[in-house]
């Protein structure tokens, strides 16, 4: 018999107020209301693009300019976006918890940096971030928020996403024009975990520890299909701890979740956390 999670805000707040170690696991849906496209579903990036063409080490080796055009586009969108009410509610709730001696952490699959820009402090970025680059040779990781990151990428990449903006007449970008390491001058790549790559082991260890110890998990705007993040919330539920899901979808991802709040999380999350915005 299917056990339907509750969608009662008062009941959720009773659980929320008792929790001492809260983890919010977020995905692309938390940034959708900031105008950043999600990956799957209507308007999703992976509907028009095979992830393997753009987000794998093999793709970067075969065509670093194309991959950089795609990431230049994503940097441009992210850098020009603002945190929305869901990001802000999470940051404000973290501050409340800190004042009360309770722990509140965000584990995000997003690379847009919007949680930190909203003011969240305890943030684990599982899949890297668009603000950093890593050298293909000396492996140094550097912060780089220059936009464009190099002159050759100015205005590029939009045709990959929107065929009406085809940039097919533009000259092919040479590898020597792409972003370089400030230390050894070799080619750098976005500091993003691509398909087929492992997560940073320290970040993964920290995330696992939170998943193993939290007493409430909020799972917000993720389709929960990419591992290991996909198993985090079900793992919390298996430990018998409450999980509250916030998603546009009407249906809960897992019948073991305690709460499911359907709708845009820019509305549902501030209401659930009791944050007036
Ligand atoms: P997806 O695009 O797979 O899923 C987005 C989820 O957010 C869906 O379940 C939507 O229903 C939900 N959603 C959309 N708008 C929402 C809103 N306003 N409020 C609440 N929910 C909303 O994104 P992720 O689950 O984050 O990895 O995808 C996981 C990973 O797959 C990404 O980190 C990326 C991608 O391939 C890498 O690139 C390594």
Largest sheet: 6 strands, parallel
CATH level 1 name of the largest domain: Alpha Beta
CATH-assigned fold name of the largest domain: Rossmann fold
Portion of residues in beta strands equals 15-25%
**CATH level-four homologous superfamily name of the largest domain:** TPP-binding domain
Count of DSSP E strands? 9
Report Rg.
20 Å
Helix content: 25-40%
Category from helices, strands and their pairing? alpha/beta
The end-to-end distance, rounded to whole angstroms, is: 39 Å
Continuous helix count: 12
Shape: elongated
Give me the side-by-side strand order of the main sheet. Answer: 3-2-1-7-8-9
What CATH architecture of the largest domain do you see?
3-Layer(aba) Sandwich
Q: Can you write the helix and strand succession as a string?
A: HEHHHHHHEHEEEHEHEHEEH
Bound ligands: 2'-O-acetyl adenosine-5-diphosphoribose
The overall average pLDDT, rounded, is 93
Q: What are the low-pLDDT stretches, counting only 5+ consecutive residues below 50?
A: none
Task: Write down the domain tally.
Answer: 2
Main location: mitochondrion
Cofactor: Zn(2+)
Organism: Tenebrio molitor (Yellow mealworm beetle)
Domain Deacetylase sirtuin-type: 1-277
Would you spell out the secondary-structure blueprint of this structure?
Blueprint: H1 9-18, E1 21-26, H2 29-32, H3 45-48, H4 51-54, H5 57-62, H6 64-79, H7 85-99, E2 103-108, H8 114-118, E3 123-125, E4 128-135, E5 141-143, H9 158-161, E6 188-192, H10 201-213, E7 216-220, H11 229-238, E8 243-247, E9 259-262, H12 265-273
Parallel strand pairs: 1-2, 1-7, 2-3, 7-8, 8-9
Antiparallel strand pairs: 4-5, 4-6
């Amino acid at each position: 018999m299917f056990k339907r999670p509750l969608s009662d805000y008062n009941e959720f707040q009773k659980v929320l107020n008792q929790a001492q170690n809260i983890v919010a696991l977020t995905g692309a849906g938390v940034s959708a209301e900031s105008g950043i496209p999600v990956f799957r579903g209507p308007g999703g990036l992976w509907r028009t693009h095979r992830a393997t063409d753009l987000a794998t080490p093999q793709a970067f080796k075969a065509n670093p300019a194309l991959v950089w055009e795609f990431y230049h586009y994503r940097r441009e969108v992210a850098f020009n976006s603002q945190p929305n009410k869901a990001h802000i509610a999470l940051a404000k709730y973290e501050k409340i918890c800190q004042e009360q001696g309770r722990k509140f952490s965000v584990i995000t699959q997003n690379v847009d940096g919007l949680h930190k820009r909203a003011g969240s402090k305890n943030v684990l970025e599982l899949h890297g971030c668009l603000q950093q680059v890593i050298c293909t040779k000396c492996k140094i990781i550097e912060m780089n928020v220059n936009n464009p990151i190099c002159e050759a990428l100015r205005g590029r990449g939009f045709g990959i996403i929107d065929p009406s903006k085809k940039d097919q007449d533009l000259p092919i970008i040479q590898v020597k024009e792409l972003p370089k390491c400030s230390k050894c001058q070799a080619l750098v790549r976005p500091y993003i975990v691509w398909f087929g790559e492992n997560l940073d082991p320290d970040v993964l260890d920290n995330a696992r520890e939170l998943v193993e110890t939290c007493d409430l998990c909020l799972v917000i705007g993720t389709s929960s299909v990419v591992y290991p993040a996909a198993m985090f919330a079900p793992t919390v539920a298996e430990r018998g701890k409450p999980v509250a899901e916030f998603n546009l979808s009407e249906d809960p991802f897992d019948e073991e979740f305690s709460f499911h709040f359907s709708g845009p999380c820019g509305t549902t999350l501030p209401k659930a956390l009791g944050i007036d915005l």
